[in-house]
Amino acid sequence: EYTGMSKERMMEIRRKNCNPMIMKVTSYKKPVFIHQGHMQWLWDVDGKRYLDLFAGVATVSVGHCHPKVTAAAEQQLKRLWHTTNIYVYPPLHEYCEKLASYLPDPLKVVYLTNSGSEANDLAMLMARLYTGNFDIITFRGSYHGGSPQTMGLTSNAAYKYPIANGLGCTNTMCPDVFRGPWGGSHCRDSPVQTIRECSCAQGYCMANDQYIGQLKETFATSVPSRIAAFFGEPIQGVGGAVQYPKNYLKEAYKLVRERGGVCIADEVQTGFGRTGSHFWGFQGHDVIPDMVTMAKGIGNGFPMGAVVTTPEIAASFAKGVHFNTFGGNPVACAVASSVLDTIKEDGAQQNSLNVGTYLMTELAKLRDKYEIIGDVRGKGLQIGVEMVKDKASREPLPPEAMSEIFEDIKDMGVLIGKGGVYGQTFRIQPPMCITKDDVDFFLSVLNKVVHSYMDRK
Ligand code: PMP
User: Ligand 1 pocket, 116 CB below 6 A?
Assistant: First the structure.
């Protein structure tokens, strides 16, 4: 039973002493006061239980307070909390070797950080030093961090500040086959297809050519002939589970490398088995990046991040001293190591594939039933449900309507996320331990909430 601080007192402190931005983006009209978590469940201070389908933004990978991971943390906390990495200590080495074993050659050198922004900052720096070039290309709608450097990669007005954040960063058109000008039903790698009519000839994706054409135009108009890097999330997260045509990344990587750039996969949301079919999102695109950045799910909620790169790139970075006090902290390493073991032992990746595919298939039925559900997409448990005014116009469902539906789903006991450049996409990125029963519960909630919303309008 909860005997801590009252809700009123917490809100008072939040107003007075907390980051006011948190207040703005706290999107529930009636906030949720979380006290406890276990696996896919969260309990509020009144003892009400929620099914957590957002996992603290795709972060709680194997489940809240997963007993195995908690035990690993406890054990390490009793042995050694911290030492600097000028000393050699087992958890760091055990983890680096283990993490590297999950990546294809030549991705074998691991740098540990404390967040995704830090990992991407480091990747930007390494790419620039290695190539001797400065310009970096990312997609519109992407999110790669909130530090002044990574803010330049991030392309979403909501996260931008009027500072010189975009120096050397150019955003190219996002090859979004639903909202973009070109698209169709067999463009993307998802168990469900968009209902948008496809303009591609059978077996040939015209949309991909068009979007690659936009990238070529970016090269021709906006950057010098030699570039440092291309950053891409295998499936956009904050952008709203946006997927690209099947061959896009493969062709883009080739074009980037021809211009001297390195290719960086931001796996902060898509990594660690979430996409189901593969352990890493990039594997679903049949590419091997030169650098992979990770965070969130790496520690099941424990603050941690990483960059994994090739020995060659690492060598060019070794000319200076890179030091990070907490990067590679023993407790973080013990936790992350246990997360990798737990994903394997619990069959979390396979569960993502099975449960995620079932969820998407059922969501597609609701899409066909309701005019305001425009698109259902994703892979595994990286899922987006894009809401529209109507299917013909594909105009985003306005924020007030999104909030109403979002709030009602929460009141019925399910937490999901919101994303997309216009805040028009519901995001479902739960702990990878959810079951088919949980999915059925969510589907009945969503059906009821959307149904009653349509009745009210
Ligand atoms: N990359 C991606 C794809 C993300 O979604 C995020 C966080 N939303 C980040 C990087 C930044 O991570 P962090 O908040 O840990 O700095």
Answer: yes
The C-alpha angle 138, 141, 144, rounded to 5 degrees, equals: 55
C-alpha to C-alpha distances, 119 to 28, 111, 206, 259, 394, nearest whole angstrom: 30, 8, 35, 24, 35
| CA distance linking residue 382 with residue 270, whole number of Å | 7
Question: Which residue has tokens 């990978």?
Answer: 61
Q: How many CB atoms lie within 10 A of CB 201?
A: 8
* Closest of 358, 375, 376 to residue 439, by C-alpha: 358
Catalogue all structural domains in the chain, each as residue range(s) with its CATH number.
7-53+349-456 (3.90.1150.10), 68-346 (3.40.640.10)
Question: Which residues are CB-neighbours of 371 under 8 A, at least 6 positions away?
Answer: 388, 390, 391, 454
Cα 131 from Cα 154, distance rounded (Å): 21
Reported ipTM: the value is: 0.99
pTM over 0.80: yes
Give the phi and the psi of residue 21 in degrees, each rounded to 5.
-60, -35
Phi/psi at 253 (5° precision): -55, -40
Mean pLDDT by 10 residues, the chain (457 residues): 93 89 74 96 97 97 98 98 92 98 98 98 97 98 96 93 90 94 83 77 77 97 98 97 95 98 98 98 98 98 98 93 94 98 98 98 97 97 98 94 97 97 97 98 98 95
The H or E element containing residue 221 is helix 206-222
Decide: 295 in ligand 1 pocket, CB within 6 A. Answer: yes
What CA dihedral angle connects 303, 75, 36 and 53, to 10 degrees? 50
Residue to mutate (ligand 1; options 117, 150, 307, 425; most atoms within 8 A of CB): 117
Q: What is the DSSP letter of 49?
A: E
3-state secondary structure of 309: strand
**What span, in angstroms and rounded, lies between the C-alpha atoms of 390 and 283?**
34
Task: Report the separation in Å between the CA atom of 387 and the middle of ligand 1, taken as the mean of its atom positions.
Answer: 24
As given in the structure block, the two tokens for residue 431 are 């702990």
- Reading the block at residue 392, the tokens are 């013909």
